[in-house]
Each structure stands twice: as C-alpha cells, then as structure tokens.
Amino acid sequence: MVGLVFYPLAATFWDSLHRVDPLQPGAPFVGLANYTRIFGDAEAGRAWTNTFKYVVLAVAFETIFGVLAAALINQVKRGRQWVLAAVVLPWALPPVVSAVIWNWIYAPGPGLLNGALMALGLNYDNYVWFNNSTYAMLLITVVHVWRMMPLTIVIVLAAMQSIPAELYEAARMDGASRLNMFSTITLPLTRGAIAVAMTNATVYAFNLFDEAIIMASNTLETRPILIQIYLEAFRKFHFSYGMALSLVLTLIALLISLGYVLRVQKTTRLD
Amino acid sequence: METPIGHRLMVWTGVTVLLLWSLVPIYWTVASSLTPTVDFSVRPIHFYPHEITIDHFARLLGFTDETIGGVNTAKQFKLALFNSIVTSLGATVLCVLFSLLGAYAFTRIEFPGRNVIFYAVVGTLAVPGYAVLIPLFRIMVATRQIDAYAGITLIYVSAYLPLCLWLLKGVLDALPRSLEEAARMDGASHMTILREVITPIAAPGLTAAAILTFLGAWGQYLVPLIFSPKLTKPLTVMIPEFAGKNFIDYGLIMASGTITILVPCMLVMFLNKYLITGLLAGSGK
Q1: Do B226 and A234 touch (CB under 8 A)?
Q2: Mean of all residue pLDDT scores within chain A
Q3: Size of interface A-B (CB pairs under 8 A)
C-alpha cells in the first residue's frame, strides 16, 4: 500500500513542482510553473469545459432518473430481486465493452438507433451522430449514465426500504395522495442517501475516460480532462505537467463532493 | 389495502421501460454476435437474427484457422482471455486474503498505531487512480514490471484493498465473539481461529469483497492500456483494437463482447445479493 499508493501520491505532488520529462535531461525545480501553465493551455481549457459538461449532465440524469427508478422498484412486490439484478447488470460490465456495444448501437447503417428511427418512419439511415459534437457528448453521456445509474438506484433504494411503513400508513389515514407521500416522506428521508449517490456520480463523471476514448477517440470536441492527462503524460511524455493536471482534478472532485455533504448536513439540521 | 389498478399499471409500465433500457443493449450484443456478416447490410435492419451462425465464435475460439491482416485472431483472443482471467483471479484471491488478515488484525489484535494505520489505508479510497498513475508508471519501469503479470496484479490489489478492508472490518466487527473465545480457551492460534471459526461465518462478506474486486479488475482499461501493452494484454484492451482496422468486423467484436460480459452476467444473476451489500458498503461514507 505504502509503495503503490502513498509514495506515488507524494511523488506526484513533488514532481509536479519540477520539470520531469524523459526526453529532456535533468529535473530542475520549476515551482508552480506547471500549475500556471494550465491557465494558458487552450486544449486543456477545452477539456475542462467538456468535463464540467459531462459532470453536470451525468449527475443530473443519474440523480433524477435514478431516484425515480428506485421509487419504482420500491413499489414492486413480486420478483423485486430479479428486476434489481437486471438493473444492476450494466454497472457490472467492463466500461470499455459497454462503450463498444453502444458504439455499435449508434453506428450509421446497421446500428440499432438509426434502425429504430427508420422503423418509426424517420429517414436516419446513414446519419452519423458523431459528426455533431453536441450529439456526440450527449451520446457519450448516455453510455456513462447507463453504466453508473445502477449505483444511484441501489443506494437510494436501500434508504427507501429502511423507511418504516407506519409513516406511510399514518399519512394514508390523513388522506395524503401518493405524490404527497413521495414529496413529504420519501424524499426528505432519503436526502442523505441521494447526497451520497450524487457524490459518487460526480467523482465517476470526473473520471470519465473509457467511453469517450472508445467512441470518439482523441477528438478535442468531446475530450474529457482525463484523456487530456493521458495524452500529455503517455503520448507527449510531459510527466510533471500531467501530474499537476491530475492533482487539480483530484482537488476539484474532492471539493465538490465535500460541498454536497456539507449542504445536506446543513439542511437536515434546519429541519 | 388493495392497490388501485391504475397505479399498478403505471408501476409495471415504468418497470418495463427500466428493463428495456438496461437489457436491450445486452440483447443486441448477443443477437449481433449470432448474425451472419452479410446480414448486417440488410435494410431495414432486422431486430432479431433471421439466420443464426456461430461463425464469429468459431473464428474467435479458433475452430477455423484464419488470419486477418497477418494476425492470428484466435491465438490473440485466447491469450487475452487467459490474461484477463489470470490477473482478475489473482487480484481477487490476494486482495481478499490480505484484507481478511488485515481486518482480523485491525479488529482482534491490539497494536500501537492501529487506528492510524487503518484510516491511512482506508483514506486512500478518496485518492483517484489517475493521481498516482504517472509515478506508478515510473516505479514499474524501474522495477521492470511493465507487461508482467505480477506488476499489473499488484496494482489491482492495491486499488481494491482499501475497499475490501473497509468492508471486511465492518463484517468482523459485527460478528459475535463468543465462538472465538471458546476456541481460544481450547488453545487455538490466531491463524486457526481465522481459518476454522471466522472464515465460515464471514463467508457472505468475503463473497461480496471477492465479487467487487473481480468485477473491478475484469473491467479495467486505462491501467492495462499503460501497463500491459503486449504479452499480458487483457480482453478490455484487445476488443477496441478489432475496430482499429480498415474493415470493422462487427460480428467478431460483438462475439468477443458477449464472451467478456458472460462472466459479469453470471455473477450478477447468481450473487446479486452479495454484490449489492458490497456496493452499499463501498459507497457509504
């Protein structure tokens, strides 16, 4: 553990203050130069913007549909474990393989998406979705959501199952509708779980790599920051700059996660 | 109380949509892997294979001797399958073993700095993998562990150890101590207690830890992309390469995809209960 996690982490920070480049001799101390360089780097800037778009879209989709799906599964009485198994399945598959599968679904010509649109009478036969960067990012997000939403569902569903049934009985006596019960009992009591799920969703969306590189290769229009780091470090061998970028990414993801947790604690205390 | 029919209908419609969303891509993978290549050019497309062929699987598993672009696909595929199995199983066994020993030490044996060490190890859960990737690469180059089974397996172990340790410490904390005390009275050593008493009753927790590690290692892409470029290349790195050529052989890709998702599908189908326990333990802060 010390050798494979702590030492590298410390080394990441230390080396990010130097110029480490296997193609150039020596490793002079450069202070914060690797960090200030981030601000002037247009490519990295685009990658940051893309990453933030992915995070916002993915977290929104996963949370909204994940909570709805959990509420739905919570209503299922017979065969619940089978429904749950089917829903968890996308999470268990290798991310690369699910990206390859969806790539085939999106393919112009024999792809399932265009085939289904054709069957509906729309002329999409040879439409290439990835020629449009907005569609491309949306479709990449869909694949990521397909893979990560099960985690949100499982976390939120566990919280819903732990709500005592008497609360709902009492509300029903008072004549509350199902929608009423959902917004006054279910949502407030699962708020903590939703925050945990959102934290996970955020961290995973910041780590988006496999889907983008399989479906759109290195294209700058859809490139998330992690691909940028990979290219800088392992194609251009700018090790120390790559490390500075990864540390900034780690820090941002941690801060945002902390934000959710603190916010939830505050609102729960006000209740 | 009787649920109104309208509500039940709504729930079942919703569940159907949810099931379609989750399962259609998987159905489509399997269906495509059984479709003859010529049928891919049929328009409008068939939503199920009109003719079934096992040709793609035969080519992958080497029942027919064929080379594509001078490369023996079957030989490559079988090597990648072997690599995936070896590294994932190796990481799972080592990870569960180490975290069981660790969890036992952290819950049953008093030693100085116990809590500090435990939280230091579990704290690495908050460190994303990419933050240590570059120095790790330099360590592996220095110790000549690039493209070696030991190197890649150890990286997986270090990635999943904190999670497993966290999970198993929770399990061991919750176990009743009376059996162990009885065993200790009889003069059993720590290792005997661990093997004879704890392992059988902690089995569900061990299963959860094993599934999480196995699925995680099985699905790794970025790490083997960097650390396993040739001889130890796993399935996840190999499959996208099928699409890199001029002609994209979708039947072959989908057949290899089907084989790769077979193992996770089986695990989810039969051991979903443990998987969900593990997921919840892993996400709870």
Answers
A1: yes
A2: 81
A3: 223
Scored b (16 or more CB within 10 A) or e, B226-248 reads bbbeeebbbbbbbbbebbeeeee
What is the rounded CA–CA span in Å between residue B210 and residue B6?
Answer: 43
Decide if A97 and B243 are in contact by the 8 Å CB cutoff. no
Q: Nearest-CA residue of chain A relative to B95?
A: A1
ipTM of the complex: 0.83
CA nearest to B17 within chain A: A69
Q: Between A236 and A190, where is the model more confident? A: A190
The verdict on residue A107 lying in a domain is: yes
Question: pLDDT tens-digit profile of B253-279?
Answer: 888 889 888 888 888 888 877 888 777
Q: Which of A46, A216, A224 is nearest to A131 (CA)?
A: A216
Note whether A115 contacts B45, CB cutoff 8 Å: yes
Asked whether residue A225 is assigned to any structural domain, the reply reads yes
Q: A251-266 pLDDT, tens per residue?
A: 887 788 777 767 766 6
Class of domain B68-283: mainly alpha
CATH number of domain containing A72: 1.10.3720.10
Q: Do A115 and B47 make contact, defined as CB atoms within 8 angstroms?
A: yes
Q: Are B155 and A200 inside 8 Å of each other by CB?
A: no
How many CA atoms lie less than 13 Å away from A127 in the CB half-sphere? 17
Determine contact, residues A197/A155, Cβ cutoff 8 Å.
yes
Nearest CA in chain A to B126: A254
Prediction pTM value: 0.85
Q: How far is CA B212 from the centre of its chain?
A: 6
pLDDT level of residue A270 (50, 70, 90 thresholds): very low
Q: Is residue A156 part of a domain?
A: yes
A71 CA: distance to closest CA in chain B (Å): 10
CA distances from B21 to A205, A215, B14, B259 (A): 20, 19, 11, 21
B chain contacts of residue A8, beta-carbon cutoff 8 Å: 132-136, 139
Q: Would the pLDDT of A271 be above 50?
A: no
What ranges do the domains of chain B cover? Answer: 5-53, 68-283
**Inter-chain CB proximity B257 and A90 less than 8 Å:** no
